[in-house]
Structure formats: C-alpha cells, structure tokens
Amino acid sequence: MIKRIIRHLIIFSVSILISCYGVAFFDGDIISIFVSILSIFSGLLIALIALINKELIPRDSSENVAHIYAKYLKDDLFKLKILFYAFLTSIFLLLVSEIFSSTLPTLSTIFKYIYIFIGIASLLFSFSLPKMILNLQENSIDSAVEESKEIQKKKNNKNI
Predict the structure, then answer these.
(1) Whole-prediction pTM value?
(2) Which of 4, 11, 77, 139 is the most exposed place for a label (fewest CB within 10 A)?
(3) How far are the Cα atoms of 4, 58, 62, 153 from residue 156, in angstroms, in the given order?
C-alpha cells in the first residue's frame, strides 16, 4: 500500500513538473505526437477492457473463488475506466485549448497546463498496464490448466 502511495506521489510530482516547465516546449509537432500517443493508449485500454470481459473466472470454481476473481476483475476494470477517462479528458482539453488559443489565450494556457498534467500522469500510470495484462493472461492460463485437469480426472473416473 505504501509503495502504491509513493508511486502515485512520484507520478503526480513528475506530471506537475512537466506541466509547469514543459508548456514552452509544446508546439504544433509535439501536440500532434501527444494526441497520437494518447489516442493509441486509449485504443489499448479498449482492447484491455475487452480482454477482461472474456471469461476469466474458472467455470468449475467454488463460489468463494468466483467472488475473489470477480472482485479483482472489477477493480482492474475500474482502474482502466479511470485511465481511459483521463486520456479522453486530456484529448478534449487539448482540443478546447487549441480552439480558444486565438480568442482566449489565458484560458487556452490554463487548459494547456491541465491537459499536459493529465496526459503525462495518464501516460505514467500506463506503465502498469503490461503487468495487468500478464496477470490476466496468467489467470486465464491457470484457469485453463485447472479445467483440463478436472476434465482428465472425470475421464479417468469413467474408465475405472
């Protein structure tokens, strides 16, 4: 728990520093690259949500095991949902900032700070996605192995 809090504090600190001192470097090319990266990660999150929706809870598991699996899957889905909304919010603020850049430059600058902060924080939180994917796949493999063991036991019991 403490490691998670420290990780969040580091991510938010880095995001604040980049949004405060990195605004001067965000010109047209960097903004288009930033939008591309955020869009790609948004698509990745959609794929992850679809992956989680696959049947990852073992069919022959007890009710307690099923509830534990369901709790972890719901927690992962909630985290992915928040991250997805952060990506979309960052892209939306970037669009609004560009729309108002000539008419309301102060508002545009404020939005620029906010979308850089949210975007960088989201990208840094995305580094935990590979671990989440691996855990989901390991759970799926373990489930398939257990299911095949059960099938093999049933076949052996029928042959006896």
Answers:
(1) 0.66
(2) 4
(3) 47, 21, 22, 5
Map residue 61 onto helix, strand or coil. coil
Q: What DSSP assignment string belongs to 73-134? A: HHHHHHHHHHHHHHHHHHHHHHHHHHHTTTT-HHHHHHHHHHHHHHHHHHHHHGGGHHHHHH
- Tens-place pLDDT, residues 18-56: 777 776 776 667 777 777 777 777 777 777 776 666 555
Nearest to 57 by CA among 128, 117, 140, 114: 140
Contact by Cβ (8 Å): 87, 41 = yes
- 61 HSE (CA, 13 A, CB side): 20
